[in-house]
Amino acid sequence: MEAYILSLVVFGALNVMLALGLNMISGFCGQISLGHAAFYGTGAYAAALLSISGLPFAASLALGALVAGALGLVVGFATLRVREDFLAITTMGVGFLFLGFVRKQEWLGGEFGVAQIPSPLSPLGFAVLAVGGALAMVALSLHLRRSWMGEVFRAVAADEDAASTLGVDTARYKLWAFVLGTACAGFAGGIYAHVTGLIVPDAFDFIQSVTILAMVVVGGIGSTWGVLAGAVLLTLMPELFRFVNDYKLLIYGALLLAVMRWSPSGLAGLAALVRRALRSSPA
C-alpha cells in the first residue's frame, strides 16, 4: 500500500511538472502545442542513456532537461512563422516525428525501448525528488507570472502583432517560452525513466500529449494554481474510477468539452466565481 501511494505521488508530481511546462508555452505565451510528450520522451531517453553510460544521476537529469530544452529551441525556431491552428498541427507533427525516430533506432531499443535503467533512489527518495521538482516549477511559474518577462509573455499571447509594433522582440520571447517549458518536460522525463527502469516509445505518444493539454485546460490555462489542480485531478481520476478506466479517453474528451462550454477558464475560473460569490453574499 505504501509503495502504491508513493508511486501515485511520484506520477502526480511528474504530471504537475509536465502541465506547468506546457502552461509556460500555451498559457503564458499563447503558443498552442500538441507535441509536449515528445520533449518528455527526449528528456527520458537522454537521461536514461547517460545514466547507463555511467554518468551520475543528478548530471543525467540536468543534461536530459538541457537536451529537451535544446530540442524545444529548435522546434520553437522552426515554428516562429506559424500561429494558432497551424502551430498546433506543426507541434503535433513533431510528436509523430519523435515517435517515428525512436521506433526505428536500434541504439534506442526500437519498439522495445531502453531497459535496465539505474534506479539510484528508494521509492520515498523518488517521491521527495519529484515533489521537490514540482514545487520548484510552481515557484518558477509564479515568479515568471509576476516578472517583466511574464508581462511580455502576456502581451505576445494577447496580440503578437501589437506587441511587435510596440518594440517587443516577440520571436525571442516565444523561444524563451519553448525552452523553459520543454526543459521542464525533459526534467520530468528523466525522473520517469529512472523511476520505471524501462521506457518505451508508446509512453510518449499523442495520447500523452493530449492528456497533458487536458490537465492545463481543465485546470485553467494560464493559471499556475489551476493547472496544478488540473494535473492532480486528472492523475487521481483513473485511480478513483478504475471501473471506467477503459473509457478514460472518452471521459477526458467529455470533460474538455464540458470545460470549454461552461467554464473556459477551468478550475481556476470556477474558484474565482466562488470567491466573488462569497464576497458579494450578505453576512
What keywords describe this structure?
single chain, 283 residues, mainly alpha, 0% strand
Helix-strand layout with pairing:
Layout: H1 2-28, H2 36-52, H3 57-78, H4 84-104, H5 123-146, H6 148-158, H7 160-165, H8 170-196, H9 206-219, H10 224-240, H11 248-262, H12 266-280
Helix pairs in contact: 1-5, 1-8, 1-9, 1-10, 2-3, 2-4, 2-8, 3-8, 5-6, 5-8, 6-8, 9-10, 9-11, 10-12
Short note summarizing the structure:
The protein has 283 residues and is mostly helical.
Q: What do these coordinates show?
A:
The chain has one domain. The mean pLDDT is 87. It is globular. It has helices at 2-28, 36-52, 57-78, 84-104, 123-146, 148-158, 160-165, 170-196, 206-219, 224-240, 248-262, 266-280. The longest helix is centred in the N-terminal third of the chain and has 27 residues, at 2-28. The protein is an all-alpha fold and 283 residues long. It is built from 12 helices and no strands.
Instruction: Please compute the radius of gyration using only Cα atoms.
Output: 19 Å
Question: Helix segment count?
Answer: 12
| Main sheet characteristics | none
Tell me how many strands there are.
0
Mean of residue pLDDT? 87
Helix content: over 70%
Strand/helix succession: HHHHHHHHHHHH
The CA-CA distance between the termini, in Å, is 45 Å
Shape, please? globular
Structural class by helix and strand composition = mainly alpha
Name the poorly predicted regions.
Answer: none
Measured by DSSP, the beta-strand proportion falls in under 5%
Number of domains: 1
